Amino acid sequence: MDSITFAKAMADDTRQQIMRLLCCQWICVSNIVDQTGVSQPTVSHHLGILREAELVNTRREGKQVFYTLNQDAIVVCCGILMQAFAPEKVTSEEQTAT
Amino acid sequence: MDSITFAKAMADDTRQQIMRLLCCQWICVSNIVDQTGVSQPTVSHHLGILREAELVNTRREGKQVFYTLNQDAIVVCCGILMQAFAPEKVTSEEQTAT
DNA sequence: ATTATATATTGACGTTTGTCAATTTGATAA
DNA sequence: TTATCAAATTGACAAACGTCAATATATAAT
Prior knowledge:
alpha+beta; three-stranded antiparallel β-sheet; 6 helices; DNA-binding
């Protein structure tokens, strides 16, 4: 996953709203629809983008599909951003200083 | 600065290209134009977005305007993202564990 | 097999975004 | 002041994006 895919996936209000809901818990699509107030197709569309970016995990349970946020991916991507754009602030911390 | 402004500012290829150039050094606009191969108005447009998001610092020197990346802002914004979307992975590190 | 429910996909539409050419603004030099 | 160079702004246009209604797909229940 590259830093642009990540940034694009994060770059929408509705998507961040969904991500906040999915943080630390599994929720099914219809619940997301209820809690966000946007239409079911729109929610599915956003979930597709998050899935594509591997920012969410999925589990089917009968007729329902549950989603949760992939927190590890968030940390990794933020790390990549910081390495790329703030190396001076983050590079070392443990410098082996030969 | 909110996490959406940040993500939107990062969510473009040309803009990340410019940000990489501005990382750890001051460059003037015409140099950015030369090194990116996009037109001067386009570069100015992207710099405007980065300025708006406070991701760059600016300094005028005669007729030229120099830009550099605001690395501290990057770190802060990534921190906000991680706090919001990966709290379990980042909250503690030093848990006072009563 | 038919029906019912949950989610994904398609198609259409308006908005936002990235790009460039042309122009304007700002700053120095003559 | 006038001329020159650097950067910002404006206007136009195509491409990408977010949204919803309608439809299709998948799963379970009758």
